[in-house]
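REVIEWER CHECKLIST
Item 1: Sequence provided? yes
Item 2: Single chain? yes
Item 3: Sequence as submitted:
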Amino acid sequence: MRLLWILCLWCGLAAAEPTAVRFPRSNGDGAQGDYGVALLQLALSKAGGHYRVDISPTHMQQNRALAELQSPRGSVDVVATMTSIEREAKMLPVRIPMTRGLIGWRIGLLRADRRELLKAVRGLDDLRQFTAGQGQDWPDTGILRHSGLPVQPVAIYQNLFGLLKADRYDWAPRSANEIWAEAARHPELAIDPYVVLRYPTADYFFVNRNNSALAEAIRRGLEAALADGSFEKLFYAYYGKQIRQARLDKRVLINLPNPLLPPQTPLSRRELWFTLDDLKRIP
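Item 4: Structure as written out by the authors:
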């Protein structure tokens, strides 16, 4: 009888143990990295299961995190990153844009002594005279080049800023939700006040292609958060201030096509995407 009681107790404790979901600590941590963790925790809390998000103890370069995710014995279960046709072929996306497409709204990071560099830009042709710095494995590099914008690829994220300071390229287009924290960490750089690029794209949670159960749990939780308003509340808690600072409606808007955008992207679900009309909704 005592043995039976011990077995029942052990089974109860085992059942109560949450499922660990391993998430990489990205090099861009700060508001962006914290938001990814917070959104994943929100989704899993509403998915109907019992989960725990475990953050990797050290930072990971994006290319390493993606390799770990695709490996059968990888050290991560979920990665948050921008989508592309190639990435969706290799990994399983949860097609709900984490930052409502804000990652496709791009503002220039400049050397502080060249903050007026883009003042005369009125369209794409004007912008083609300037070379942009971008990560060599980022989909953005192909998107910019497709529109004839010169790009200098950078192998390591942290080097993006030092090479800009060293005048290896003219500017670094950064998303409206990333640029403010990056500029704060690099006071030798400045944020362009005149131009914004926009191309349709999304950053998703991706899982290994063999982990459809986790993908479904995240999708179910995100849909629940969208329905009860907690997704939008979290989004504006992290990015409302940055969006207001960006003054997107006061800039020269240059729209670019995205040849890397998968056809399954849910562009028809208007509630998933940030637009300039949403400026009136920011708390």
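Item 5: Key structural point noted by reviewer: The CA atoms of residues 115 and 129 lie 16 Å apart.
Item 6: Recommendation: ____
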